[in-house]
Amino acid sequence: MASQPPATAKDKPDATAAKPLRADAQRNRDALVKAAAAAFAMHGADASLEEIARQAGVGIGTLYRHFPTREHLVEVVYRREVESLCAAADELALHHPPDVALEQWMQRFVDYIATKRGLATSLRTLLNTNSTLFSDMSGRVTLALRQLIEAAVADGSIRSDVDASDVLHALGGIYSAPDTDDWRDRSRRLVSLLMDGLRFGAAKSAKGGG
Amino acid sequence: MASQPPATAKDKPDATAAKPLRADAQRNRDALVKAAAAAFAMHGADASLEEIARQAGVGIGTLYRHFPTREHLVEVVYRREVESLCAAADELALHHPPDVALEQWMQRFVDYIATKRGLATSLRTLLNTNSTLFSDMSGRVTLALRQLIEAAVADGSIRSDVDASDVLHALGGIYSAPDTDDWRDRSRRLVSLLMDGLRFGAAKSAKGGG
DNA sequence: GTAATAAACGGAGGCGCCTCCGTTTTAGTG
DNA sequence: CACTAAAACGGAGGCGCCTCCGTTTATTAC
């Protein structure tokens, strides 16, 4: 479990090599990310950075030391959220039948995107600027979705002639709908509809294999 | 020369209908645009708006009344510059042989773009956001270029199998070159080279018509 | 000319951005 | 434990953004 290389380990020229932060620095950093996530969710991507620092209980200087620009902070928050969304896939897979897990995850995905409406503009700018971020995130999402789909296909509860990118496109159609009041309800219905389409013609009737 | 419709003229429901400004307002507006053009040229698109107001000799409130956002101001300055660039085409056509006019105008065009390097990012954002602006401006430029080309073709000094959009693409290749110190010299050479290509196979050798 | 009114002015004020640097805290060392 | 160097902190300060509203000015009507 001890993954620190304090003295005995050799330096790894790892791409993601980050020397361990000092304990207080790590604490503050975590507090900042948490506060930023809340602030961005509440006020959109141009929430006040000073307010974020205040909520995190640190000085504005500390915020800027950790995140030199607003974009850095937005990126970290965004990565963290996508990561947690994808982690939820594993969690759902453990506690539900594959098709139910898939449906619930798709619903979460759409809901998550919905919360990002306000950030749409700046997030798109960020994703255009930072192509690494874009490919990392879409790769991560596709992977999570693929695993859910494969499990459901293996289980025979959905048809086998679909793949993750097809479904991702279909979900795109759902969340790009204009935002009315009943957006949430409709998206729920549409995800459910998509799910029925996926179940149609599935092998489940011939259930037998383990 | 009197183009004001003070009392006798009827109201035109023109799309660009703008009620005439009060004299002082028009004066201030002009001063602001002029100051802004200078400031953007000097400091890029995020020049200080307060400084612009100061240079124009007006209060910051006046600036914001005329141009509610920075983008409004950038747009007006940009439109004015493109307009003046295109007007230069007519001017050149009056005082030079068609091929010389064409070459000189292309040179001005490339020089102009060069001054916009600093604004590239924000200008691109603006053009993406505001598609009307984009089509207006590129239409205006294409028209000016087409007239120069047609005159030179008619005169027999350049070949006839090119059109404005071809040449615009070629110019694009020139100004998108990486910016080194000798950028200006090289672009001059390249424009000259392009011009030679346009002259090649022209009818001018068979000069005879008046 | 004067009066009335709509239009325009302008800058103070409140807030946010970001930098800079004196102060504090941590992680090592003996 | 004390000591030190390096790392991190934090907030004052300077500047820019933008709004709001009391004051000034151009225009119109008489």
From TrEMBL, chains A, B:
Pfam families, per database record: TetR_C_43, TetR_N
InterPro entries the UniProt entry points to: Homeodomain-like_sf, HTH-type_TetR-like_transc_reg, HTH_TetR, Tet_transcr_reg_TetR-rel_C_sf, TetR_SbtR-like_C
Domain HTH tetR-type: 26-85
Region ranges (Disordered): 1-23
UniProt-listed Gene3D superfamilies: Tetracycline Repressor, domain 2 (1.10.357.10)
Residue ranges of the annotated DNA-binding region, renumbered to this chain: 48-67
Keywords noted in UniProt: DNA-binding, Transcription, Transcription regulation
Protein name: TetR family transcriptional regulator
Organism whose genome encodes this protein: Mesorhizobium escarrei
Taxon lineage: Bacteria, Pseudomonadati, Pseudomonadota, Alphaproteobacteria, Hyphomicrobiales
